[in-house]
Amino acid sequence: MRKYFPILLLVILILFPLIVRDHYHQHLMILVLMWVVIGSGWNVIAGYTGQVSFGDAAFFGTGAYTAGLFVTKLGISAWWGMLFGGITAMAIAFPFGWICFRLRGAYFALATLALNEVCRHIATIWESLTDGMVGILVMQTFVSKVPYYYISLGLAVISVIGVQFIMSSKWGYYFVSIREDQDAAESLGIDTHYYKMLSLNVAAFLTGMAGALFMNYMGFIDPEVVFSLHDISIMAILVGIVGGVGTIYGPVVGAFVMVAVHEFFRTGFFGFFKGIAALTGSDMINVFAKYVMQAHVLGFGILVVLVILLLPNGIVGDWNLIVKKIFPVKTRGATG
Amino acid sequence: MEVFLQTLVSGILKGGLYGLIGMGMSLIMGVMGIINLAHGALMMVGMYVTFACFTYAGIDPYLTIFISMPSLFLLGMLIQKYTLNPLMEVDSILPENQVLMTVGIAMVLTEVARFIFSSDYKSVRTSYSGATFFIGNISFSVALVAAFFIALAFTLCMFWFLLKTDLGRSIRATAQDKDAARLMGVNSKRITILTFGLGSALVAAAGTILMPVYYLFPDIGGPFTRKAFVITILGGLGSTVGAIFGGLTLGLAEAFGATYIGMAYDDMIGLLIFILVLLFIPGGFKRLLKV
User: Fold this and answer.
1) CB distance from B282 to chain A under 8 Å?
2) Which of A46, A58, B1, B215 is least surrounded by Cβ atoms within 10 Å, i.e. has the fewest?
3) Do A179 and B93 count as a contact with CB atoms less than 8 A apart?
């Protein structure tokens, strides 16, 4: 049963836009698929290689700006950015990794945080290239959301399969050995610096492509959006952690949960409070609903705290634990 | 020349404060080996305590140190006890779980502050906020000079505490070798709780004395977390003496950068220094000074 689950999921995802035709849900699913790509990238560097990155937005933004600048500066289609966004993100990742992989653990994490900020500042200050805070506006290619959906789906499938392929190859074992014990890995003759660089570049490539996709789909970017620490970098971490660190399908589950939670709060529990307020005519609940709608970051924060405390390996990683907790008797015979 | 001296003075005054901010982070990093990404958020909470005391009770900002420090000490201890310490026993893949937890805590603190005080910019305006005095042609902001000396006093107290008291010795012992300290009968769990409280209290003090000359909004924590991080990298990880030098260096660099390069590059300069330090003196000042 477990073997067929990914195929089943893929079939459902392919059929989704044919069944659900309203734009709102299609939009949400495109976002989910984009986050699958970013989450997979984060998972490679942080989940498998153990180098937690707080700076995914640097790669994401670079990819997005690459796509945008193709239009504004070179006058060619932003879709070229899908190809080159990943490569320019790698061009950022390469020198950065070269310098900062001499840091370990949490110190590396903070260096990525610094990279994020540096990139945002550069994008803001270098107005002759990026138009600064004005941002870049690009006409969307398609009116319908369906083409975007399939492109995102393709990218997400490629990234999940790609990550699976990498992780079952020799690289993958090296990555995990670095996460488990860097010194031991080094003493066994693994060039840890080299493989950490590889891992970072894979992550940067995927994230950069997702950035280019974002540019194409949204049609507008500015430094505060694509280099945002909270909306991109932290969100990427959340997708990874909630779904499951170091699992192939963790980012898939995480992306879905996080986008759902985000929407859940943003719409005030899908209009639940609004409905109650309208029913009872109470102003209090209306005010409360307004607070809830602003509180999605608070929700994220509480979610992080709870997930780390209760499910340190994420939903996929601790799936057996969750199943056991919910159905203590039924699954006694089930194997992990 | 005058511009140069003026910049120097403002850099040093700022640097003293930065040292105080960095010291709390250094202390936490030394004892627990984690980077506290909620540091700036704790400072923000301290600043809001000051703001609330000043606005609703009319207490002088400097006196609110006696309110903000104990309350943040308590908050820090609670955070360590109920969120960070339980993680030590949790079995997880990523060793950085505690760091990620501090991110979550920072988010919660920021959003709660936004809930209560809204996103608007707040400030504490006192009679001496804008006051200056002159030595020669160099102007000194009264509030900043006061802040500098209070920061200096706290730093000295901290040193006395760490060097001379039993508790301070236990903290240093835990920072040097946790297992050995435990074998010598130090309750390392209690020490971590205490240290987090102390670090929070120190950064709250920094926030409070900055309040008369600065503004406040819920997201102010982020930039200060980054500054504290640059300071600790500059000073050498976990070194309190290094943190003071790191703070001074960052203050000076920011001041000179703002004067001679441009205000827009204010934040960039800290990050540039950070990368340079990593390239050329990976151990920070700790390495150079052998302290």
Assistant:
1) yes
2) B1
3) yes
Q: Is B134 helix (H, G, I), strand (E, B) or coil?
A: strand
Give me the percent of chain A exceeding a pLDDT of 70.
91
Pairwise CB contact (< 8 Å): A309 & B90: yes
Q: Give the chain B residue whose CA is nearest to the CA of A230.
A: B107
Measured in angstroms, the CA of A23 and the nearest CA of chain B are apart by 31
Residue among B100, B108, B268 whose CB faces A308 most closely: B100
pLDDT digit string, tens, across residues A51-104: 888 888 999 999 999 988 888 888 888 788 888 888 999 999 998 888 888 777
pTM recorded for the entire structure: 0.82
Cβ within 8 Å, pair B108-A302? yes
| Residue A166 φ then ψ, to 5° | -60, -45
Q: Is residue A8 part of a domain?
A: no
Q: What is the total count of domains within chain A? A: 1
Measured distance CA(B245)–CA(A61) in Å, rounded: 34
Chain A residues whose beta carbon lies within 8 Å of the beta carbon of residue B87 = 308-309, 312
Question: What are the sequence ranges of the domains in chain B?
Answer: 17-220
Q: What is the pLDDT of residues A195-245, one digit of tens each?
A: 999 999 999 999 999 999 998 888 888 888 888 877 788 888 888 888 888
**Residue A113 and residue A55: Cα distance in Å, rounded?**
5
CB contact (8 A) between residue A106 and residue B96: yes
pLDDT at position B253: 87
Q: Cα A292 to the chain's mean position, in Å?
A: 24
- CATH number of the domain enclosing A274: 1.10.3470
Give the number of other Cβ atoms within 10 Å of residue B134's Cβ. 8
